[in-house]
Amino acid sequence: MSKPKILVQLDSDKHASNFDAVVAVDSGIDQLFQYSQVASEDVQGLIHGAMFTRGIQDLQQTAVFVGGSNVAVGEDLMAAATKCFFGPMRVSVMMDSNGSNTTAAAAVLATARHVDLKGAKALVLAGTGPVGLRAGRLLAGQGASVKLGSRSKERAQKAADSVISQVEDANVVAVSTATEEETALAADNVDVIIAAGAAGVQLISQTTWINCDNLKVLVDLNAVPPLGIEGVEMNHKAEELENRIVYGAIGVGGTKMKIHKAAIARLFESNDQILDAEEIYAIGERLESSN
Ligand SMILES: NC(=O)c1ccc[n+]([C@@H]2O[C@H](COP(=O)([O-])OP(=O)(O)OC[C@H]3O[C@@H](n4cnc5c(N)ncnc54)[C@H](OP(=O)(O)O)[C@@H]3O)[C@@H](O)[C@H]2O)c1
Fold this sequence. Notes:
Elements: E1 6-11, H1 18-26, E2 31-35, H2 40-51, E3 62-67, H3 71-83, E4 92-95, H4 100-112, E5 121-125, H5 130-141, E6 145-150, H6 153-166, E7 171-176, H7 180-187, E8 192-195, H8 206-210, E9 217-220, E10 237-241, E11 244-247, H9 249-267, E12 274-275, H10 277-290
Parallel strand pairs: 1-2, 1-3, 3-4, 4-12, 5-6, 5-8, 6-7, 8-9, 9-11
Antiparallel strand pairs: 10-11
The protein binds NADP nicotinamide-adenine-dinucleotide phosphate.
């Protein structure tokens, strides 16, 4: 008989994400061990506890989920976890700090339903946050040329540099979107806009995006009014608006949840999976193709 499925949740925040805990339970795990305020130096002990207790044949029944609001810290925790592994002594790990990977994967998959991303021109508004950064990384990995926007050119450049360091041959530039005029300039000529701004902040007006002649798809991830893209409503899901295809946060959210649950389930298929942005996107692609 197989051992119970244990998910070890390593979260850098004061309280480990309740959202991630609920999704884990809904994904069919048997036991959830939650750790909060986890720092890199804590990881080795926690991972050793997970990988030295069960026999090698049962290691796929234990997996690790890395979360928390800070993606950079999540990346460090993930790196610290994978550093502990050797030979067959390993457990599968998924990283989804602040829902960044699953949400970005769902947003990029939504655009890919309508636009060939290879060679497409994309603008990610608020490309500095957890979700925007991952959306930029995935778009670049799919061969799109990407503009990462921020109210600060310096922050945008830092985000662009991080994507360039993670994606081979990435075509990514930083743009300032501090004013509507700058946003209009950044949006000129793009095929796709993904708005990944903080809750309750409008990032682009309808008057601005309507004038972007090449624009085909708009995706807004903000579900708190005012929404990120004026005119796009949170429930929009592949709706046509002003001859463009639009998605709102709830329209993308269903796909995000399916990807998140499928990724948790995938962790327990073997003990050697490392699920970061690209792997989680690939899970989303497989879900789409099986529908
Ligand atoms: N639909 C879903 O399933 C789902 C799941 C998870 C998250 N979300 C949503 O996705 C969005 C992105 O999430 P996140 O965690 O990456 O967001 P975040 O960290 O809260 O914010 C992202 C970026 O928004 C910009 N920003 C913050 N305050 C602003 C303001 N007052 N005016 C203009 N820009 C501002 C900042 O960029 P700069 O300072 O560089 O300009 C920041 O880096 C959020 O709205 C979140 O609620 C949706």
